[in-house]
Amino acid sequence: xxxxxxxxxxxxxxxxxxxxxxxxxxxxxxxxxxxxxxxxxxxxxxxx
Length: 48
What we know:
Order of helices and strands: EEEH
Shape: flat
Helix content: 25-40%
Number of domains: 1
Distance between the termini: 17 Å
Radius of gyration: 11 Å
Strand content: 35-45%
Number of strands: 3
Number of helices: 1
């Protein structure tokens, strides 16, 4: 899940909610949407 921050950057959050913090885990912050999408694809590749 990619969200745009107020600073204009994009952050990847985990899809599942972390049971300890009850929030989504931060998986990285990027300056462009393209970079965030690329990294999200890399994350999905290593998950399977």
